[in-house]
Amino acid sequence: MVAAASAGGTRIKTTRVVIAGVGGQGTLLATRLIAETAIKQGFNVRIGETYGMAQRGGPVMGHVQIGEAYSPQIRPGEANALLGFEIVEATRRAVTYLKQGGLVIVNSKKILPVEVISGMRKYPEEGELLKLLKQVSGKIAVLDATSLAEKAGDPIATNIVMLGALVVSCVLPFEKEDILATMKGLIPPRFMDLNIKAFQLGAKAFKESK
Amino acid sequence: MSNPIILNEPGKIVLFMGNEAIVRGALEAGIRIAASYPGTPASEIGNTFAEVAKEMGIHFEWSTNEKVAFEVVYGASMCNQRGMVSMKHVGLNVALDIMEMAALRGVKGGLVFVSADDPSQHSSGQEQDQRWLGKQNCVPVLEPSDPQDAKDFTVYAYELSEKYRLPVMLRTVTRVSHMRSNVKLGEFQKLGREAKFDFDQFSYVVAGFDKLFYGREKEANEKISRIREEFESSPLNRLVMSGKEKVGVIAVGQTYNYVMDALMKLDARERVAIIKLGTSNPVPEKLVSKLLRGVEKVLITEEPDPFVELHVKAIAKDANSKVELYGRLNGKLPGEGELTPLMVDGVVAEMLGEKLPTNPRAGLEVEAKDMLFSRMLTVCAGCPHRSSIYALKRAVKAMKGDIHKVIINGDIGCYGLAWAPPMSYEDTYFCMGASIGVSQGMSRVGVDAIAWIGDGTFFHAAIPALMNAVQTKTNIKVVVADNGVTAMTGFQPNPQSGKTAMGDPTNSVSIEGIAKAVGVEYVEVVDAYDLKAAEVAFKRMLQAPGVAMVVSRRLCATEAVRLIRPKRPIPYGVDVGMCVGCKLCLSTFGCPALNFDEEKKKASIDPTICMGCGVCAQVCGSSCISRRD
Question: What is the pTM of this model?
Answer without folding.
Answer: 0.96
